[in-house]
Amino acid sequence: MHAQTRRLLDLGLQVDADPGPPPTEDAILAVHHEVVPAADLAVLLRRGDKPGFVNVDMPDLAEFVPVPEVTIPNRPLYWLVGIDRGDDLQSWSPEEAAPELASRGRSPLTVHEGISWLLQRPEVLEPSSCFMTIASRKPKARPKGAYDARTPAIWISGGTGRDGRETKGAPKVGWCWWRNRHTWLGFASVTRRV
What we know:
This protein has one domain. 17% of the residues lie in helices and 23% in strands. The protein is built from 4 helices and 14 strands. It has a 5-stranded mixed β-sheet with strand order 4-11-10-8-12, covered by helices on one side. A 3-stranded antiparallel β-sheet has the order 1-6-14. The longest helix has 10 residues. The chain starts with a helix and ends with a strand. The model has no long low-confidence stretch (mean pLDDT 95).
């Protein structure tokens, strides 16, 4: 059994699938979005002694699904190859970053993939260098092809507002507006999914 699969089991996830060997040394094991709800994965995140959480303003996180442009392998567990936090795109909006990533031959991460990455590599989440997961969007009923204006992101809670002081320093799954820019959020992406 691969160490990353063992890590998921140690966290309490019931994963009985074998993803096979990693295609590259730095590949990251992702949990398919239909296997475990993102909110259930988020609470398994840790930064020091702080557990992860979902922003109170995002009770509909389960409705954020992979966009059609992203092909997710039809397996409970799969590999992410060439993952990058996208720090060079800080201060870009999701609307601006999406075509830029595509022009580089890269695919943005879904929120499940972003959480999966941090479950294996919690040190990736750093102050002033966190990331959006813009391959997850919430479809709107109409017009056809339209999305909710929010996009999921993962950062470190400041422990302010409705988050509560006790969350300061904890991994947080929240959201940002599709057309807003943030100096401390990059755009996580991969070269391929296997």
